[in-house]
Amino acid sequence: MSAQRGTWITLEGGDGSGKTTQADLLESWLTDAGHVVLRTREPGGSDVGRLIRDIVLHHRGDIAPRAEALLYAADRAHHVATVVRPALERGEVVLQDRYLDSSVAYQGAGRVLDATEIRDLSLWAAEGALPDLTVLLDLDPETARARLDSADKPFDRLEAEKGEFHRRVREAFLALAAAEPDRFLVIDAAGDHDVIATGIRRRVADLLAGDR
Ligand code: TYD
After folding, report:
1. Ligand 1 center to residue 126 CA distance, Å?
2. Of 66, 63, 71, whose CA–CA distance to 157 is shortest?
3. If I label 18, which of 126, 152, 154, 199 is the partner at 20 to 30 A Cα–Cα?
C-alpha cells in the first residue's frame, strides 16, 4: 500500500482455526511493545460494514453468488477507505481478521465464481490495497468443526456449509499462500496456542524491524 507509514497485518483461515485467539495474543504483544494497534475485521469493520455483515451472515435464504461477492466487496471498499487507510496513515499497526483472501477462498469455493474475477473485484474495491503480512492459520476442516461444535454458539450461514465446501476453502487458502509466499506466513493451527503465537511474533518482529 503506497504512502503508508503503518503496518497492515491480516489473519486468514477457516472457521474454527483460532484467528481470534491469535489476534488477541498478537494485539497484547504489540501493545506491550508500545505500538498503537487498530483491531478490526471483515465483514463488519465499519458502521456501514456492520449492516452488510448482518446481511451476508444472517440473511435467511439464498443470496445470489454475485450479489454476495459484491456485498463483501462493498464492505471492503468502505472499510479500507474509512478505517484501514486512515489508521495506516496515522502510523498504526492494523490487525485485521479476514480480508480479500477470504473472498477468493469462500466465494470461490461455491464453484460459481472465478477466483481471479473475485480477487479483481476486491482489488478494485480497495484501490489495490494489499497487507504487508497475511497470517494463514491452516487447519483441517474436521478439527475445526470439532472446535466449533464444542464452542456452543449458533452457526452462521458459512459455518453451516458442508465439509466438502470447507475442504475447498482450505485448498484455496493454501494455493493463495503458495502464489504469494512473501506476503503469507502459513502456520499449522493444530498446535499449541503459545507455539503458534511465537511463530507469528517472530515474523511480525522481522516485519516491524524492516519498516524502520
Ligand atoms: P468471521 O468474522 O471470521 O466469523 P466468526 O465471527 O464466526 O468468527 O467470518 C465470518 C464469515 O464470513 C466466515 O465464515 C467467512 C466469511 N467471509 C466470506 O465468505 N467472504 C469474505 O470476503 C469475508 C471477509 C468473510
Report:
1. 18
2. 63
3. 126
For ligand 1, atom 5: residue with the closest CA: 15
93 and 6 in contact (C-beta within 8 Å)? yes
Domain count, the chain: 1
In a domain, 187, yes or no: yes
For residue 65, the domain's CATH number is: 3.40.50.300
134: closest CA among 212, 207, 28? 207
**Residue 60: domain span:** 7-208
Residue 150 is predicted with a pLDDT of 86
**Cα 157 to averaged position of ligand 1 atoms, centre (Å):** 9
The Å distance, Cα 113 to ligand 1 centre, comes to 17
The ranges of the chain with pLDDT < 50 are 1-3, 212
**Strand duo 133-138 + 37-41: pairing:** unpaired
For the question of whether the overall pTM of this predicted structure is more than 0.90, the answer is yes
Asked if 97 contacts 42 with a C-beta cutoff of 8 angstroms, the reply is yes
Neighbours of 175 (CB within 10 A): 13
